Amino acid sequence: MRYPLRGSLRDSGGYRSEMQLPPARGPLSAWISSRLVRAGEAYVPAVVSDRPQADGDLQLALWIAYELQYRGFDEVDPGRQWDPDVIVFRTLLEQPWIEWLEANYRIAPEAQPVAVQLRALIDDKEDLRLAPYLRRHATRDQFREFVLNRSVYQLKEADPHSFGIARLAGAAKAALVEIQADEYGGGRVERMHSELFRTTMRWLRLDDTYGHYVPEVPAVTLAVSNVMSLFAMHHRWTGALVGHLAALEMTSTLPNRQYATGAIRLGASADQARYFTEHVEADAVHEQIAAHDLCGSYVQEHPEAVGDVLFGARCALTADGHVARHLLSRWTDADACEHRDAG
Prior knowledge:
The chain has helices spanning 27-37, 56-67, 84-105, 114-123, 130-136, 140-154, 159-162, 170-183, 193-203, 219-233, 238-250, 253-265, 274-301, 306-342. It has 343 residues and is an all-alpha fold. It folds into two domains: 27-103, no CATH class; 110-342, Heme oxygenase-like (Heme Oxygenase, Chain A, Up-down Bundle), CATH 1.20.910.10. The protein is built from 14 helices and no strands.
């Protein structure tokens, strides 16, 4: 059954900013959905997860809890945003995930400028070859699946990192605002990166409604959105938030050039591939601003936070890596089956 989620720019020219709660994937997501619609759900399920990054129930429950801070849901009273029971439950959901992230991705900082450490972290990341595959080999259906998964985050691109503006000061605040201004199209709606992404989605005959594909994507895709929301919602994680953004900006130019080439190979027009080409140009500049002006200035003011900056960057890199590994595994397995059947 399709559960429509509303929020796209329609032909009538208006936005519907709210959406319906997605179907539950287990007791955690079922509890929070029920609590948001019907107050008084007494029993709270235990939050136990050995692999929270790949736990679809936990990640969906977190996504629902975080979404209350963004656009909300059609059938949920806006006042539920600050429901104490929901906030407590969200905290319970976050605990095993934070512990898992800390255990796997926390690294000790070195006595070098943070920009140098970020570059080393990025240069050492595993090359999963997703971008080259999309450039050279992906079918239209595979490219469509890639864009579908990306839509969960890209349709609210920049929003999580914008939470950091109020928490920064001086040069770091100015750097973040400069980056975000480009993400939001410099005040022109048709140049907002989320709108450019909608054009790419429509080329692939995907529904460009905000959150539409949340019921279909795997846990690792929800985790990409959730990890930046985790950092955005907590003052304690401001350093991780700016590190997360820096990692995205510093790893954007080359992959987006390859995504654009792959899209054009598959028949996209210049307008339909503009989301990717726009990032090739913009993020080459953003890379320097993010590493030096944003993270460098923040660490200069908060030297104790350098470890958090690196932690946020590594979380960004590995979250994207989980999705890349998931997609490549699906596609290469399908290719192997096709060759086997042909033989």
